[in-house]
Design a protein that fits this description.
With 281 residues, this protein is α/β, with parallel strands linked by helices. It folds into 2 domains: 58 residues, Orthogonal Bundle (Helicase, Ruva Protein, domain 3), CATH 1.10.8; 204 residues, Uncharacterised protein PF01937, DUF89, domain 3 (Rossmann fold, 3-Layer(aba) Sandwich). Helix content is 52%, strand content 12%. The chain contains 12 helices and 7 strands. It has a 7-stranded mixed beta sheet, sandwiched between helices. Helix 11 links the parallel strand 5 and strand 6. Helix 4 runs antiparallel to helix 5 and helix 5 crosses helix 6. The relative contact order is 0.15.
Length: 281
């Protein structure tokens, strides 16, 4: 997916929000905005938004000296999600279609996205998504590919959302490798947050090598690329991974909520829609 013009003011808004979390020094915050503004002048529009996001958050870390501005917020979101987990596990077990319910809940967790959302109501979003119609729904194809797959590659997105991923992984009943970001960026899940979410209990945790807020294959480690190429089923969570992988030439299933008009337009859905979309089926 390319960068759209509407992505550019979003980069500035994200930079301001993250810089204010990192520091109270207004001079440093202004320096961040100056640097991001200059960066926008040179941003190749053919790059994915996730690639540009890497540069934005790199500047924030360099100028403020804070490598992980969202560290405490990520831990809070994981704790909040884990508090809901027993009730949600009961809900999945009691449903007529546990796999589909787990998919819905995994998508509900996708609202925990601090690159896009300033605020969200997790419990309210769960209730809504459990009854919301899918705008794109390749569920039959997903089940067909799942039945054939011996191994699954699951691409994580945000911390907190990662707890909801555990619900879905439990319903796949196949060996799963769960890929995380190689370093902190926004509130995305790194190896630390994956362990804190309990994902090591249900999957093998692997480092993608991607420092971006999404999987960018040219940043990926050779080990990850080999796993990616050999995986029979790839599940991609969230908008950042969609940005990085939507033009790939292999079968991938994207699970997300369209939280911004750019992503919604690229998918051909409305903002706020939920999506289970397979490509190259």
């Amino acid at each position: 997916m390319k960068t759209y013009l509407d992505c550019l003011p979003c980069f500035v808004e994200q930079a301001l929000r993250a810089a204010r979390i990192a520091t109270n020094d207004e001079k440093l915050i202004k320096n961040v905005l100056n640097e991001v503004g200059c960066m926008i002048q040179e941003t190749p529009m053919e790059n994915t938004p996730a690639e540009s996001g890497t540069r934005v958050y790199g500047k924030i870390s360099k100028i403020t000296g804070v490598a992980d501005p969202y560290r405490e917020i990520k831990q809070r979101h994981i704790a909040e999600a884990k508090a809901l987990l027993p009730e949600l596990e009961t809900m999945v077990a009691a449903s007529e279609d546990p796999l589909l319910t787990a998919i819905r809940l995994a998508i509900a967790g996708n609202v925990i996205d601090l690159g896009i959302n300033k605020t969200f109501d997790l419990v309210s979003d769960i209730r809504k998504i459990l009854s919301q119609d899918f705008a794109l729904f390749d569920y039959d194809a997903f089940k067909k590919e799942l039945a054939k797959a011996k191994t699954i590659l699951y691409l994580g997105d945000n911390a907190g959302e990662s707890v909801f991923d555990k619900l879905l992984i439990q319903q796949l009943h196949k060996p799963v490798k769960y890929a995380v970001r190689t370093q902190p960026i926004i509130n995305d899940v790194t190896m630390k947050e994956a362990f804190d979410s309990g994902l090591d209990e249900v999957a093998e945790l692997i480092d993608s090598g991607s420092p971006a807020p999404g999987i960018i294959m040219r940043y990926a480690t050779p080990d990850f690329r080999e796993i990616y190429q050999n995986a029979k089923l790839v599940i991609s969570k969230g908008q950042g991974n969609y940005e990085g992988l939507s033009d790939e030439k292999r079968t991938i299933f994207f699970l997300l909520k369209a939280k911004c008009p750019v992503i919604a337009n690229d998918l051909g859905v409305r903002e706020g829609d939920i999506v289970l979309k397979g490509i190259n089926l």
